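Sample entry (453 residues):
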Amino acid sequence: MNLKKHFLLIFIFLTTLTFGQETQEKSEVYKMTLQDAIDFAMDSAYANINAQQDVAIAIKKKWETTADGLPQINGQVNYENNPKLTVTPLPGELIGEPGTTVPVSFGNKHNMNASARLDQLIFDGSYIVALQAAKTFLEYSANNKLKTEYEVRTNVITAYGNVLLSKNSIDITENNLDNAENNLDETQKIFDNGLAEEEEVEQLKITTQQLKSQLNNAKRMHEIAKESLNMVLGLPVEAEVILLDELEILATQNILETDASEDFKLEETVDFKIAKNLVEQRDLEFKLEKSKALPTLSAFVNYGATSFGDEFNFFESGKDWYEFSTIGVSLSVPIFSSFQRHSRTQQAKMELEKAEVQKEQAINEIKRTYNAAKSEMTYATENFEISKDNLNLAERISHKNEIKFKEGLASSFELRQAQVQLYQAQNEYLQSMLNVINAKAELEKIKNKPLQN
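Predicted structure, serialized as tokens:
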């Protein structure tokens, strides 16, 4: 009985410990600045993890190609069992019985041989090209990983900004709703005392109901934005992430950090490097097809032993094994392929020419994208300043109309019109801040700004 209690206590303890660990994992809170989020995503984002695997695969592929030209050793063991040996008739003269035939069985019931073979490639033009191609493929994979990291950084910045935008939208809408409800309560009391028109109350009710709907939608969008950020970061969608940066501060910093005079080096962009890698790959494929017209020379060494008998006793001591060995070379010379090699070589040459055209297209696309990103950043900066000024004006206009309304100098329609103008200015200002952040992120992606500070 005591033993059962002992095991029960251990079980309860382990269950409690496991539950506690699960609860701790689920309740983990991540606090991140924007740079923290970028650094975190570099290691945990799904796209980055796969890109890292692609580089690892390319490294293994390079060694696989290298190993083709290194010694290859293979072993082989063969065993044969002959339940019924082949019978061959021989003339009786062999045993002194002319005019007759004698059935004779040749062979042994059990046969076994073991051998090992070493093959070494001496010359193969395609092998030399393949080594160069493996190196180029590794460079391509590394550049593609870098491109993925730039895209992940841009996605993190966009997702981070969307969460801040939706949170600010909630705060502003809640404040607007509080003011609208206060105005509605005061107007309702004035109406109850017969000092206000019913239309004024109804106008304020419309404003209040619309703000409630906007607030509910803003809260839903905030939850969606948080889940999107978690996905970009490589976290479970239910994970709690607290953002430490402020939207307005980030927008201002991005404007201050933008240097319009900074040099743009096209040759250092990852898109140019990838286009260059493609040309190099197609050039090597062209050389590979041409190299197939060259001879291939290899050498081999074969060594083994064989044994036989009417009983299976190959592993007994004293069993006779008869050794054999072979050394040789093999030369393969392509002579005529009915123009098959020529056709493949021409195809590879055409693919190379296409890659050259694609590279030229990529260069022009990089230039166009960079110019567009610069223009977008300039517009976003100007629009941010204008939206900020418009918001200040809209706040003053709304405040004046609210005072006039309370003093009976403005109608509820005029107040509502001023409030709608204020709400629009607030949304435009929020969006202008996000546009600055996103425009700067796109510009940095094109210019290949270092990923980590």
